[in-house]
Design brief:
4 domains; (R)-2-hydroxyglutarate dehydrogenase activity; oxidoreductase; FAD-bd_PCMH; about 500 residues; about 35% helix; FAD; 17 helices
Length: about 500
């Protein structure tokens, strides 16, 4: 076997990952077995298709898998994992492959198990609003399905056209509506998951209240496929409300953004459904790198922009409430300019600015991405500190879910450079730890941050996590090298 399969470098030159020698390598008998279970067309060895699923969408992480499996039922997933576990074949579960931390692609030659063929809506109860579906359902398709039923998904992401609900649940994706509907730990009522040994855990309950023993589903929400493969989900969906209003606002400084958030929570209260912010560097990137985007507040650029969305049931009341809030905020100097969307096209154009930032960053060139939870009052200080540290070497961009205290720190550079990375890491993680923040607010740990977990979690806590991993996946075949530090997961 080639050396490249034994050892990989990711991130800085000093970060080397060794292939776990206890894992077997694929042989012709394995292929024959999988074809017997799945049929010829669902066992993919085609190099072009494999090249696509071996790499993440940012082209930062690339594996060397020689096999893609496309199960269509939970039983097939069970048979795959039971066999892989007996053979010590490592597996990486894959949904829409829209992750940002290298969690959904192989590190070496792991077998890729894609959930994309398990994409059926199983049931929807229009009285309770509870949706039951398979893990491979694309988020945008679920949003469209629910829209026709008069409901909405409690989750909305910029990647909704590609990401899958199983991946969303497995990474505990946050997104744009968390301020209103909370995290998936609250809205997911149940799930079905397949363990490494092939055992199927049926936790697909649809009850709002169930206090019978340990609530094991929470182990799989956010565990990034390292404890089991999520195959089905039941999720509580809120009814679609008729009145949606969106305002795009400008603030002169970060303090004004904070005060505006506090006022929005107080004055808009129950109708506030999103509070997003971006700095002038983020706005500049979007205007320069995405086609058809216009500045909603011409002619000048402002230091900060805030997008506020309200959702309610009384259009006249909601609009009056929002307009009164905006007028008071303008008079008090919290906002220096603003516009209220007049129709659905204008509303979409406002959201396109906020949701288009990751795409604009990708088009601008190499980017280092950090997803952090921090106290709102000093969140933007990190962006300013990084600008001082990096000076002219790179452009530092700050945006994110201000209503949730979630900063997306992005550093756009001319090329990936270990000198730049050394200026960023571990400084960003140390800064976050010092302010008692989280080094992963919503993207997960994946491969990128597996060894960085101690910046946010105590050794005792991580040791318990490793014990749970060992219990549920004793051979360590599920998404190896990810989530937990390699020192605790070498078998």
């Amino acid at each position: 076997m080639m050396y490249s399969l034994q050892c990989r470098c990711f991130g800085s030159a000093g970060t080397k990952i060794q292939r776990n020698p206890s894992f077997a390598t694929l042989n012709s008998d394995d292929i024959t077995y999988f074809k017997g279970v799945l049929g010829e067309k669902n066992v993919v060895q085609d190099e072009d298709r494999l090249e696509f699923v071996n790499a993440d969408w940012m082209h930062k992480y690339k594996g060397s898998s020689r096999l893609l499996l496309l199960p269509t039922t939970t039983d097939e997933v069970s048979q795959i994992l039971k066999y892989c576990n007996s053979r010590h074949l490592a597996v990486v579960p894959q949904g829409g492959n829209t992750g940002l931390v290298g969690g959904s692609v192989p590190v070496f030659d792991e077998v890729i198990v894609s959930m994309s063929s398990m994409n059926n809506v199983i049931d929807f109860d229009e009285v309770s609003g509870i949706l039951v579906c398979e893990a491979g359902c694309i988020l945008e398709n679920l949003i469209s399905f629910l829209d026709n039923q008069g409901f909405i998904m409690p989750l909305d992401l910029g990647a909704k056209g590609s990401c899958q609900i199983g991946g969303n649940v497995s990474t505990n994706a946050g997104g744009l509506r968390l301020i209103r509907y909370g995290s998936l730990h609250g809205t997911v009522l149940g799930l079905e998951a397949v363990l490494a040994n092939g055992n199927v855990l049926d936790m697909l309950g649809t009850l709002r209240k169930d206090n019978t023993g340990y609530d094991l589903k929470h182990l799989f929400i956010g565990s990034e496929g390292s404890l089991g493969i999520v195959t089905k989900v039941s999720i509580l969906t809120p009814p679609k409300l008729s009145s949606v209003n969106i305002a795009f606002l400008a603030c002169k400084d970060y303090l004004s953004c904070q005060r505006l958030l506090l006022e929005a929570k107080r004055k808009l209260g129950e109708i506030l459904s999103a509070f997003e912010f971006l700095d002038s560097e983020a706005m500049d990137l979007v205007l320069n790198h995405l086609e058809g985007i216009r500045n909603p507040l011409p002619p000048s650029m402002h230091n900060f922009y805030v997008l506020i969305e309200t959702t309610g049931s009384d259009e006249a009341y909601d609009k009056e409430k929002l307009e009164a809030f905006l007028l008071r905020s303008m008079e008090s100097g919290l906002i220096s300019d603003g516009v209220l969307a007049q129709d659905i096209n204008q509303a979409s154009s406002f959201w396109r600015i906020r949701e288009g930032i990751p795409e604009a960053l990708m088009r601008a060139g190499p980017v280092y991405k950090y997803d952090l939870s921090l106290p709102v009052e000093n969140m933007y200080n990190l962006v300013e500190d990084m600008r001082v540290r990096l000076a002219e070497k790179a452009k530092v961009v700050g945006y994110g879910h201000l209503g949730d205290g979630n900063l997306h720190l992005n550093i756009s550079a001319p090329q990936y450079d270990d000198m730049i990375l050394a200026k960023i890491e571990p400084y960003v993680y140390e800064w976050t730890s010092k302010h008692r923040g989280s080094i992963s607010a919503e993207h997960g740990l994946g491969l990128m941050k597996a060894n960085k977990i101690f910046y946010s979690k105590s050794h005792e806590t991580v040791q318990v996590m490793a014990s749970i991993k060992k219990l549920l996946d004793p051979n360590g075949i599920l998404n190896p090298y990810k989530v937990l530090p390699h020192s605790l997961t070498s078998y």
